[in-house]
């Protein structure tokens, strides 16, 4: 109590309350014989009684008093309350402002703060002044500035505020500014970072004047898995890591430890090479006995540096020697043992017969046909990236021959022929060295160069494996596919010099838009700029959502927080807007789609009559109508007659042996010859305006086809789109059929014809100048009624919005729409109970299946056992006793088995009994046998959940890229699976059967042609099943599910699909709602208002069509990937030429002038093509090394200008004139 020199009292100023409070304080502090020693006051003299906020007001007052060293006066005080014994009190009232000097000498100032509540309760705190701030240590050469906000506009405001502060305080210590931003601010989604060496550089970055120093990103997706990639021999250079050694203690300490451990094995200090010390000859680093341990040390120390700042790898990948570094990091052997192994390995390989190696831009299988002699494939690095090894003269001869044939290739900087038969003399001694090492199972997963797959504990612990690893081909391309497939949004960090491995991995077919590649050291060979490069990568990771241990980044350096601008809170209006007349109106106005609560996600279909049918009277001739005939008297005949009656230009097409013009308005065509469609449209191309093609499913294929003319539709639509793109006119594909819908029992549903509905929807979305119309029309018996209905169909083909199927019955038009399933329909009366019993989960055990299983094991009124039988293509699961070992990876069984085992164990922990039945496919009675097996083992079947076995190879492809036969094979898989399910369940009476489908059949989606066709068939199949049998199935048309964190696009925005996708944690809650709609036979799940989504999709297509020109129908170039630098367009002609060349070479657009060539997917052999292009257009020799050090359009353009000036200055006037 003696150390407290001020008390902020409750102090209400009442005659009764103040004496009681002071008496209690005096009892605690004790009487004062030397007079009052402690000031007392109350903020209520300033602001009155703030009720619930009274205590916090007191705390704020004391904090400000401590900060300013001043005790403010208690206002309006003249004399003390006579009921208080002031003479013996340790307190005096602070009646005037006075300096606050504190209590005992040398002690910090302390104050007590009271906050009384009802009944005399008191929350009393003691507040002490902050300790004196230690002086900051000297700033590092560069610092990382980080800013983040909830919105782009707030982030921009933060940049402006910070720039204004630094401009006003140019002497600010940049290290403290960086530390404050890193440690004193919460990280939000929209992020900005920059590596700066001075306040001036920081201002330039904040103002947008130095785009190359800036990294931006959207981190709402959360942290990505990190993969460390360790390169092999050939990437090393003398002095690699020297700058990090000088400035980063963790790296320095690790290198020092390794150097000491290596001294007995090498007889030299590897720091001579790593630091490029004076006297060390750089050429010695080409000698394998030294290269391998030096590279190992650099990579190991870099890995420890990354891990010290909180970047921990989820997986590892290495190339040749790099796999040793990966194994050491994974714990297969200790650092001491690893250093000894690479020393022995390097020494033994160095003693082997000399040879040469070359990187060749060619497929390995094709390459082996090109040589004679003893050459071998040392590494397969990509689909067209191979490394050849063997005798030097044979390698030289092959390189010369390939280069003369135009094949890119180059010699590698090595004197050995690694991973070849020339290594065999070293293998015996290498095995002996390995036998002395304790090899353990890896604690971090990594891939094997030997097998191309994930390493197993048995392989990692076998000396024979590591011996074979030194001899055989490095299967790096397969390694890359394994890693990228398991981690579809991974950040791959090159933990070594340059970016060799990340460039190779970008060539993999598995490299997706969500993958990122980051390098640690620059590709140059000077060691300069290494710390800046590393910090730039740290900033890039943070901007992309990774967590960084910023305090560890500063090490033991003293840093202080300083006062900086705070968050620029943005005003948000909460005015209640008037409700729009329809959800579609919201979409048309361009608003984003609101993500609803799961209770509002469910919809069911209904048929709505629109307008009655009337006679068509077109006011003008518009374009050309092309009608594909079928049988006489059918819809095509009627429609063509009505067009001719309305004086519309119409051409009829009939089936013939080959393409021929039979008359001015009649052509013959063989639908089995797809090239004849192109001949037809070329012959009809003279007309102006849109071309409207009318056909039926029977126009392309025989009536008994299982697929409703899918192949014919693809051939016709492809040819029609090509014609439209060339002519610059719109193309309308109008399909008339029947059997899609059954409104009142008037027809039979034909599921195979629904496939065209799905294909057409996507075809229209993928091509701006196209429109797809679908009419489901039941032919009337009377000719006059047929003519009236044909008029209505033609009117809609000409003027109605495209995309939505229309139904024609009698004299009425109908539309199928989806209405929300209201909350009052989701109740216990309708709910399908998850009772005890046997449940079959048939199909891929994906997120939806897992969520359903999780729903089943929820607590329910029925306490009985729930058996879950999973029937799919999963490899045969062994006995349950080994499931834990499979789940944690101790027993290698593949990713699918590992995930299935882990989920099954969780279900069993919750009380379920889980069984697996494996079948090759759902057809050929395999599914029936599996269902019978489950029924025989467990008795009556309670419920079934079915999902289609889908082929991953062609699921995502544009309509124009699909092969008709492959599509029919895949759709046959869908159809036969449902047929087999119907047969399999016929003898049983499960309480429910859910068939999973997709919302793609209604909304389409770019690249989802096959998906939409299969979904449309599935939904129609369920409708037909329910009409023809007495067992009720329910079709669930799912919205997209996300399998991981939500990601952002290259402009830092979360994509609409990702934002709206169903998240795994919402699955159980969603299944609960679905089960409560017990009477519905069809449920559609949409996370946003479905009517708005359809309107939005159609409106987006309309805008696209309006903006498209003759050459914009089908762009071949890929979009620019997400990059950590903003897109900056070319500023002058030379930059534009370079950007165009890169775009053509990489198959990508647009190209920004600060985009790194290698981050765009370029690699060393493509870089040589860039150099060739530059040298062919400018009278210079552009050095390849210069390109690697400056791989952006802006830097290359600047270098070209400098080289041109240098050349011109060295030339005579006559030479300059001749050149110009």
From TrEMBL:
Residues 1-129 form the Ketosynthase family 3 (KS3) domain. Pfam families: Acyl_transf_1, CurL-like_PKS_C, Ketoacyl-synt_C, KR, PP-binding. One of its GO terms (molecular function) is fatty acid synthase activity. Keywords: Phosphopantetheine, Phosphoprotein, Transferase. It comes from the Bacteria. Residues 1129-1204 form the Carrier domain. The keyword Cell wall biogenesis/degradation does not apply. InterPro entries: Ac_transferase_dom_sf, ACP-like_sf, Acyl_transferase_dom, Acyl_Trfase/lysoPLipase, Ketoacyl_synth_C, KR_dom, Malonyl_transacylase_ACP-bd, NAD(P)-bd_dom_sf. GO terms for biological process: fatty acid biosynthetic process. Its cofactor is pantetheine 4'-phosphate. CDD domains: PKS (cd00833). This is Uncharacterized protein. It comes from Paenibacillus elgii.
């Amino acid at each position: 109590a003696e150390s407290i020199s001020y008390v902020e009292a409750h102090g209400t100023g009442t005659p009764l309350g103040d004496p009681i409070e002071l008496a209690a304080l005096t009892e605690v502090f004790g009487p004062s014989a030397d007079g009052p020693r402690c000031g007392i006051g109350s903020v209520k003299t300033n602001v009155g009684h703030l009720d619930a906020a009274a205590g916090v007001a007191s705390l704020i007052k004391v904090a400000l008093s401590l900060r300013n060293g001043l005790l403010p006066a208690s206002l309006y005080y003249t004399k003390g309350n006579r009921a208080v014994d002031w003479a013996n009190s340790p307190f005096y009232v602070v009646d005037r402002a006075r300096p606050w000097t504190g209590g005992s000498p040398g002690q910090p100032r302390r104050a007590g703060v009271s906050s009384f509540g009802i009944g005399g309760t008191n929350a009393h705190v003691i507040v002490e002044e902050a300790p004196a701030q230690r002086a900051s240590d000297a700033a590092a050469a560069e610092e990382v500035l980080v800013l983040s906000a909830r919105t782009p506009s707030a982030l921009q405001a933060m940049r402006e505020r910070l720039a204004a502060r630094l401009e006003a305080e140019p002497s600010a210590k940049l290290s403290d500014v960086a530390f404050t931003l890193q440690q004193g601010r919460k990280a939000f989604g929209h992020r900005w970072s920059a590596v700066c060496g001075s306040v001036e550089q920081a201002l330039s970055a904040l103002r947008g004047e130095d785009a190359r120093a800036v990294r931006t990103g959207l981190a709402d997706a959360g942290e990505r898995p990190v993969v460390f990639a360790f390169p092999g021999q050939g990437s090393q250079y003398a002095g690699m890591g020297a700058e990090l050694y000088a400035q980063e203690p963790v790296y320095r300490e690790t290198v020092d430890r390794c150097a000491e451990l290596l001294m007995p094995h090498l007889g030299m200090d590897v720091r001579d090479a790593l630091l490029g010390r004076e006297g060390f000859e750089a050429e010695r680093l080409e000698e394998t006995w030294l290269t391998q341990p030096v590279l190992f040390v650099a990579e190991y120390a870099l890995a420890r540096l990354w891990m010290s700042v909180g970047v921990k790898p989820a997986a590892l990948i290495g190339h040749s020697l790099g796999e040793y570094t990966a194994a050491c990091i994974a714990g297969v052997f200790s650092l001491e043992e690893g250093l000894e192994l690479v020393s022995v390995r390097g020494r033994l390989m160095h003693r082997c017969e000399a040879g040469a190696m070359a990187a060749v831009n060619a497929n390995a299988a094709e390459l082996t046909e090109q040589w004679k002699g003893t050459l071998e494939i040392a590494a397969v690095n990509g689909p067209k990236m191979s490394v050849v090894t063997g005798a030097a003269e044979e390698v030289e001869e092959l390189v010369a021959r390939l280069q003369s044939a135009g094949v890119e290739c180059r010699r590698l900087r090595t004197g050995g022929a690694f991973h070849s038969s020339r290594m065999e003399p070293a293998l015996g001694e290498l095995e002996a060295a390995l036998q002395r090492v304790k090899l353990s199972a890896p604690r971090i997963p990594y891939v094997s160069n030997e097998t191309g797959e994930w390493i197993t504990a048995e392989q990692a612990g076998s000396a024979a494996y590591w011996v074979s690893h030194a001899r055989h081909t490095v299967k790096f391309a397969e390694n890359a596919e394994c890693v990228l497939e398991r981690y579809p949004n991974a950040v791959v960090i090159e933990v070594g010099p340059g970016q060799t491995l990340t460039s190779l991995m970008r060539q993999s077919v598995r490299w997706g838009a969500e993958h990122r590649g980051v390098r640690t050291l620059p590709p140059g060979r000077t060691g300069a700029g290494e710390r800046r490069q590393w910090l730039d990568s740290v900033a890039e990771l943070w901007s992309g959502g990774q967590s960084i241990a910023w305090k560890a980044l500063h090490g033991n350096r003293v840093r202080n927080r300083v006062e900086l601008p705070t968050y620029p809170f943005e005003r948000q209006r909460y005015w209640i807007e008037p409700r729009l007349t329809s959800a579609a109106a919201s979409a048309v106005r361009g608003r984003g789609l609101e993500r609803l609560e799961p209770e509002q996600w469910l919809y069911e279909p209904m048929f709505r009559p629109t307008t009655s049918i009337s006679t068509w009277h077109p006011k003008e001739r518009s374009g050309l109508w092309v009608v594909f005939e079928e049988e006489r008297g059918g819809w095509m005949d009627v429609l063509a007659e009505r067009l001719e009656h309305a004086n519309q230009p119409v051409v009829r097409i009939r089936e013939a042996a080959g393409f021929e013009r039979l008359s001015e308005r009649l052509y013959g065509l063989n639908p089995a010859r797809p090239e004849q469609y192109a001949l037809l449209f070329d012959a009809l191309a003279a007309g102006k305006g849109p071309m409207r093609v009318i056909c039926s499913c029977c126009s392309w294929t025989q009536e008994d086809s299982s697929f409703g003319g899918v192949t014919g539709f693809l051939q016709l639509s492809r040819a029609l789109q090509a014609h439209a793109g060339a002519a610059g006119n719109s193309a309308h594909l109008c399909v008339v059929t029947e059997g899609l819908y059954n409104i009142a029992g008037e027809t039979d549903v034909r599921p195979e014809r629904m496939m065209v509905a799905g294909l057409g929807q996507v075809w229209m979305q993928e091509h701006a100048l196209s429109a797809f119309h679908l009419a489901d029309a039941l032919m009337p018996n009377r000719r006059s009624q047929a003519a009236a209905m044909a008029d209505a169909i033609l009117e809609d083909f000409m003027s109605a919005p495209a995309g939505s199927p229309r139904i024609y019955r009698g004299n009425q038009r109908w539309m199928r729409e989806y209405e929300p399933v209201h909350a009052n329909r989701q109740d216990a009366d309708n709910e399908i109970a998850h009772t005890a019993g046997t449940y079959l989960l048939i199909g891929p055990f994906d997120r939806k299946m897992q969520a359903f299983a999780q729903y089943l094991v929820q607590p329910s009124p029925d306490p009985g056992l729930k058996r879950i039988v999973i029937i799919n293509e999963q490899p045969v699961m062994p006995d349950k006793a080994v499931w834990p070992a499979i789940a944690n990876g101790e027993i290698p069984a593949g990713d699918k088995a590992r995930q299935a085992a882990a989920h099954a164990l969780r279900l069993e922990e919750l009380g379920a009994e889980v069984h697996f039945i494996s079948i090759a496919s759902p057809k050929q009675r395999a599914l029936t046998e599996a269902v019978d097996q489950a029924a025989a083992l467990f008795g009556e079947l309670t419920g079934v959940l079915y999902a289609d076995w889908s082929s991953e190879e062609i699921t995502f492809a544009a309509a124009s890229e699909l092969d008709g036969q492959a599509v029919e094979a895949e759709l046959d898989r869908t159809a036969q699976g449902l047929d087999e399910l119907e047969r399999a369940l016929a003898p049983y009476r499960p309480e429910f059967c859910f068939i999973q489908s997709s919302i793609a059949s209604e909304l389409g989606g770019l690249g989802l042609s096959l998906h939409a066709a299969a979904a449309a068939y599935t939904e129609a199949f369920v409708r037909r099943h329910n009409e023809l049998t007495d067992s009720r199935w329910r079709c669930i048309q799912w919205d997209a599910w996300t399998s991981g964190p939500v990601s952002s696009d290259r402009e830092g925005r979360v994509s609409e699909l990702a934002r709206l996708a169903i998240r795994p944690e919402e699955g159980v809650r969603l299944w609960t709602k679905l089960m409560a709609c017990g009477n519905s036979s069809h449920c559609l799940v949409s996370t946003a208002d479905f009517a708005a989504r359809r309107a939005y999709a159609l409106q987006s297509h309309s805008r696209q069509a309006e903006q498209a020109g003759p050459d914009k129908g089908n762009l071949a170039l890929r979009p620019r990937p997400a990059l950590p630098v903003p897109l900056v367009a070319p500023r002058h002609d030379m930059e534009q030429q370079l950007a165009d060349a890169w775009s053509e070479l990489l198959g990508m657009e647009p190209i920004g002038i600060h985009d790194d060539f290698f981050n765009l997917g370029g690699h060393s052999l493509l870089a040589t093509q860039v150099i060739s292009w530059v040298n062919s257009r400018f009278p210079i020799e552009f050095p390849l090394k210069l390109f690697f050090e400056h791989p952006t359009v802006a830097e290359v353009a600047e270098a070209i200008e400098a080289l041109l000036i240098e050349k011109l200055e060295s030339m005579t006037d006559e030479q300059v004139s001749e050149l110009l």
